[in-house]
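sry for the spam today, last one i promise. C-alpha cells for design, 262 residues
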C-alpha cells in the first residue's frame, strides 16, 4: 500500500536509551524514498523538539524540529490554551520546566498558590513532593499528566515513567487526573495531524507500545505496525485488547509494508 504519512515512535522504535536500533536508519530512509511524510512522536516529556533533533543527529539521523511531536510540547500547548495565566506546580524534570517556561507558562513553588499540578517523570520524586501535590490538589488545583507511560526502558530494565508519578498523585488524592497528554491522547493525535497534513487513513503508525502507539493509531483510523524492538513482544499480543495491523521485527522491515499491493 502507498502511505502519504508515517507516525514514527522514537524510544523502542528508532533508539533504545541512547543507542540507535539496528535497521532504524534504513527504515526511515525507506519511508522517505517512498515519498512518505514522517513525523516523530515521543512520550518522553523531558526533551523539547530541538533536544530530540540533537539526540537523533548524534545517531546520524536528520529530522526537522517541526516534525517532532513530543509530550512536553503537547502538554505546554494544552496548558497555555486551557489554563492561560495559570500558575503551574511541576512534579517533573528540569527539562519539562524549561519547556513550560519557553512556552510562557508561570511556575510556582507554592502548593496553595497552584492552579495546575503537573505530574510527570521525576527522578527527584519523594514523600515531600507527594505531600505538595496532595495539598495543591486538595486546595483546588487542576491535575494534569504529561503522558501515561507507567515504565520506560532503562539500560538494566524498566524504570518508573510519568504514569507511575501520575498514579502516585492519583492515589494520594483519591482522584483521577483531569487530563493526561502524550500518546494516545486526542491532543497528541491532533498535533500529529497538523504536523503531517495528511488524512489519518493514509498514515502508517509504527511504535513499540500497544497501549499508547497502537491504541492511538487505531482510534485515529491509521494503519498500525508494532515493532518488537521495545516494550511489547509477541506474547503481549495474546491478551491485548488493541491489535496492530502488522507486526515487524524492527523498523528496518517497514519497506515490506510500503511494497505491499504495489
Ligand atoms: Mg516507544
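last one done:
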Amino acid at each position: 500500500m502507498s502511505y502519504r504519512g508515517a507516525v514514527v515512535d522514537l524510544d523502542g522504535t528508532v533508539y533504545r536509551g541512547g543507542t540507535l536500533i539496528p535497521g532504524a536508519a534504513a527504515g526511515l530512509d525507506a519511508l522517505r524514498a517512498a515519498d512518505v511524510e514522517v513525523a516523530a512522536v515521543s512520550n518522553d516529556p523531558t526533551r523539547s523538539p530541538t533536544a530530540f533533533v540533537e539526540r537523533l543527529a548524534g545517531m546520524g539521523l536528520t529530522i526537522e524540529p517541526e516534525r517532532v511531536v513530543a509530550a512536553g510540547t503537547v502538554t505546554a500547548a494544552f496548558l497555555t490554551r486551557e489554563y492561560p495565566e495559570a500558575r503551574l506546580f511541576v512534579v517533573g524534570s528540569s527539562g519539562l520546566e524549561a519547556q513550560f517556561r519557553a512556552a510562557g507558562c508561570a511556575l510556582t513553588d507554592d502548593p496553595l498558590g497552584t492552579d495546575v499540578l503537573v505530574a510527570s517523570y521525576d527522578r527527584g520524586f519523594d514523600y515531600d513532593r507527594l505531600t505538595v501535590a496532595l495539598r495543591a490538589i486538595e486546595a483546588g488545583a487542576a491535575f494534569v499528566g504529561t503522558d501515561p507511560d507507567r515504565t520506560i526502558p532503562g539500560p538494566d530494565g524498566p524504570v518508573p515513567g510519568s504514569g507511575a508519578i501520575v498514579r502516585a498523585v492519583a492515589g494520594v488524592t483519591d482522584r483521577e487526573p483531569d487530563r493526561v497528554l502524550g500518546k494516545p491522547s486526542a491532543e497528541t493525535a491532533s498535533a500529529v495531524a497538523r504536523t503531517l497534513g495528511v488524512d489519518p487513513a493514509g498514515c502508517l503508525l509504527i511504535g513499540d507500545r500497544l497501549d499508547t502507539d497502537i491504541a492511538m493509531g487505531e482510534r485515529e483510523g491509521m494503519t498500525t505496525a508494532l515493532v518488537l524492538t521495545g516494550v511489547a513482544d509477541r506474547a503481549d499480543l495474546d491478551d491485548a485488547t488493541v491489535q496492530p495491523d502488522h507486526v515487524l521485527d524492527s523498523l528496518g522491515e517497514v519497506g515490506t509494508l510500503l511494497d505491499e499491493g504495489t
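DSSP finds nine helices and 15 strands in the chain. ok im logging off now
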